[in-house]
Amino acid sequence: MSVRSVPFFNYQAVFKAKEDEYMAVLRDVLARGAYIMQRDLSEFEDNLKSFLKVKHVFGVADGTNAIILGLRACGVGPGDEVILPSHTYVATAAAVQLVGGTPVPVDIRADDHMLDAAAAEAAISPRTKAIIAVQVNGRTCDMDALRDVADRHGVMVLEDAAQGLGSRFKGKCAGTFGKFGTFSFYPAKLLGCFGDGGAVVTDDDAIAERLGLLRDHGRNADGQVVEWGTNSRLDNMQAAILDFKLKTYDEDMARRRQIAAAYQSLLGDLEQLRLPPAPDADPRHFDVYQNYEIEADRRDELRAFLKERGIGAMPQWAGTPIHGFRELGFDMRLPVTDRFFERCLMIPMNMSLSDDDVAYVADNVREFYRRA
Ligand SMILES: *Cc1c(COP(=O)(O)O)cnc(C)c1O
Fold first, then answer.
1. If pLDDT is split at 50, 70 and 90, which confidence band does 372 have?
2. Average pLDDT in the 102-131 region?
3. List of domains in the chain
4. Cα 157 to middle of ligand 1, angstroms
5. Phi/psi zone of residue 287: left (φ > 0), alpha (ψ -120 to 50 degrees), beta?
């Protein structure tokens, strides 16, 4: 098979795919001089509300600030412990730390590498205030199991759904289970803008009122400052692009599921691999595959082999889970997560892939193990 280039993510291709439409959207915003807290933002927020079936949506600066604002709105602060899966981006833990709380990383499940509800329960202490479910790789955790643990111990469930937009558990969207849910619109995320962007969503009116204040300097509708807030607003150019992309987001989700099904059929028989759950594996889960994260024997050699063939593959979070950050004071072992991080590898999963690209990736993975 001839060599082709299948980068892990192709930023230029995203723009090129609909260049004229994007430029028209941006020109419209620029011509109106509507940059901050204008119509484009409120329209996007309304459309995201309908998509998620949630009562309140706030566009904010990015997915990290979304978590920080959500934690503040829920009163998480000094002295509070917050449990989260170690298989997440540093942002989840950093947000807890930055509001004065203590992030407590726990183990993941071996079958789907999501937060393990039993591990979360084992980590609950008298200081535990909340559990953050991280809806990683475009999958929603088993929220029944988590809700059960949280209710029995009287702690809040919160959601970092930065990687979960549109994924569902028993028909309900990621981000709408917790006291609040957060999203990231970083360019390589499921719904990406051309810069940084994020959202925090909630069904709770009181939390919504605080979120509205916190993201805009604590100013109420009359412009009066009523509490300490910050500047964390999604700007209108990004909101307008996101609103445009949201219109065809159903097609994006379908395409990602199609790619996952293709990988499943092309690689599912290799005993050296463990693939993520297939799109039709469990009717309770609707997965949208932000990433396609496999477990692989001889992971580093496989990655190097793919690189020679022009294929971008990488372990998530540069290969380090939260509890592996010694510089941040963590010093612990989490057996399932530790084993997972010795083997995990993300292979290309994005909207720029052609069917031939997907076949090329799969062929080369097979080729690597054939040679072994
Ligand atoms: C991307 C991401 C974030 C942070 O989002 P930003 O928009 O980059 O701040 C938080 N949590 C998870 C799981 C992410 O993947």
1. confident
2. 98
3. 14-246 (3.40.640.10), 248-371 (3.90.1150.10)
4. 18
5. beta
Q: Cα separation of 289 and 167, whole Å?
A: 9
Q: Residue 175 C-alpha to ligand 1 middle, in angstroms?
A: 13
| Pocket mutation for ligand 1, best pick of 163, 180, 193, 242 (most atoms within 8 Å of C-beta) | 163
For residue 338, report the distance from its CA to the centre of ligand 1, in Å. 21
Centre of ligand 1 from the C-alpha of residue 89, in Å: 6
What's the pTM?
0.98
pLDDT in tens, 264-283: 999 999 999 999 999 999 99
Pocket lining: 159 vs ligand 1, CB cutoff 6 Å: no
Q: Is 135 in the pocket of ligand 1 (CB under 6 A)?
A: no
Shortest-distance atom of ligand 1 to CA 163: 15
Q: Per-residue pLDDT tens for 196-248?
A: 999 999 999 999 999 999 999 999 999 999 999 999 999 999 999 999 999 99
Check if the beta carbon of residue 198 is closer than 8 Å to that of residue 185: yes
Confidence of residue 1 (pLDDT cuts 50, 70, 90): low
Which of 9, 62, 64 to probe ligand 1 with, by most ligand atoms within 8 A of CB? Answer: 64
Token couple for 346: 């993300």
CA atoms within 13 A on the CB side of 224: 2
CA–CA separation, 316 vs 291, rounded Å?
Answer: 9
Q: Is the CB of 293 under 6 A from ligand 1?
A: no
Distance 19 CA to ligand 1 centre (A): 26
| pLDDT digits 0-9 by tens, 159-187 | 999 999 999 999 999 999 999 999 999 99
Instruction: Extract the tokens encoding 9.
Output: 């993510």
d(CA 76, CA 301): 43
